[in-house]
Amino acid sequence: MALKALDIYKLLPKKNCKECGEPTCLTFAMKLASGKVKPEDCPYLDENVREILGASTRPPVQRVKLGVGERSFAVGDEIVQFRHEKTFFHEPGIMTAVSDLMDPDSIQAVVADVRDHLLVRIGLDLRLNGIAVWSASGSPDAFATAVEAVEAVAELPEVLMAEDPAVQEAGLAVCGNYRPLIHAATGDQYREMCALAVKHGCPLAIRAPDLDALAGLSGLCTAEGVSHLVLDLTSPSLHDMLNQATAVRQQAITRTAPALGYPVFLDTRPCGLPDAALICGVLKYGSVLVADPLSEASRKALLVLRQNIYTDPQKPIQITPGIYRVGSPGPDAPVLLTVNFSLTYFTLQGYLEASGTDSFMLIVDTEGLSVLTSVAAGKLSETLVRDSLKEFAVPDLVKHRTLIIPGYAAPLSGKIEDETGWKVLVGPRDAADIAEFLEKEWT
Asked: Which of 56, 100, 335, 376 has its CA 20 to 30 A from that of 18?
């Protein structure tokens, strides 16, 4: 279990020397318990205490980075079992599989699709993460050729899937400097795979028949000098995959099995329900997910699901308050008020663009709450509207004094008119009806 601040304080030298940058040892203990400082920051800890504190205060699921450059990504570094307890931090990397039995042109077509595909949702760019190269041939030359085909098209993070150390070494000779994930070490060849991981500075996936054996293999690999591990929990049974992933997260978070405190790798292809396995992987603790090329519909659904799960449930995604233009609005254009909850903003923006009506959107700061919630909580008020109209110089943009507010803000209409001197039109509750509303009500 993680040590509390007072437990940590008992292990400190209690010199209050301030050499760590904190005013007292108690302050240092409190920050160490919350992960804001490291044991190494105290110059007077002996090695045994430093080791105890390091094991207790580091994140229960270790952070592992794949790839280099702009498209690199990190997984792990998670501290909770359930998203609502705090949040999940590092979303799983979705890797598209190619085989060394494919010809280079076919491989490059898949890689280019992964490289170029972009889904923009609520102002954020959603992408697949990289390529998993699978050695189906067992040939070092064929594997190296497939990796070369990937490298010729894009600098994407890669998983090299070859259990034969000789085949793995051939792939690493091509891309070993770019930090691919080596997959996978087993009890039979872990020494050779660990040597490759150490030589190239790459993270290493490990696989074993059960969790006890996996924990043992984890210890053997760390003894060989490999500290960045990923646990392969792939199974042909979706039931077993879910149970093992949940058990690993639970044991890692509670620190009952520190040897299992690493990100989880799931190859969804052996499962008879690959789309379901991908969904479960996103929901239940997968960190690196391998899949065959996805259909457009599956890809969009998966990217949106991942975005939803890996946003902070206690902190809605927000838009910067201000005045936003749809089209090329002039002085006669309507002004529509709404909140800075990003989903509300982008929904309204989309329907306004579809209506073809040039307009102004006045976005007010409700701390990311929706219209209905912000009205109920008092975050959306007549004084906020008054101050926002002035702050963003809306009267200078239009020659009329008419403001359209959301339907759910109707109870505020009279107060807004009294406070601002503007005429208020109550718009529809559903943004999908805004085009019809403007056609009938705006002249």
From this structure: 56
How many other C-beta atoms are found inside a 10 Å radius of the C-beta of residue 146?
A: 29
pLDDT (0 to 100) of residue 230: 98
Q: Which fold has domain 322-441?
A: Rossmann fold (3.40.50)
Q: Name the amino acid, one letter, at 366.
A: T
Q: Is-contact 57 2, C-beta < 8 A?
A: yes
pLDDT tens readout for residues 201-249: 999 999 999 999 999 999 999 999 999 999 999 999 999 999 999 999 9
Q: Average pLDDT of the chain?
A: 93
User: Are the beta carbons of 289 and 270 closer than 8 angstroms?
Assistant: no
> Does the structure show a pLDDT above 70 at 2?
no
Report pLDDT for 45.
Answer: 87
Q: Is the peptide bond before 97 cis (omega within 30 degrees of 0)?
A: no
pLDDT of 114 higher than 90: yes
Residue 105 has pLDDT above 80, yes or no: yes
Q: Where are the domains of the chain?
A: 5-57, 64-309, 322-441
Q: Write out the CATH class of domain 64-309.
A: alpha beta
Give ∠ CA 371-376-377 in degrees, rounded to 5: 100
316: confidence class by pLDDT, cuts 50, 70, 90: confident
Give 332: exposed, middle or buried? Use CB within 10 Å, 0-12, 13-18, 19+: exposed
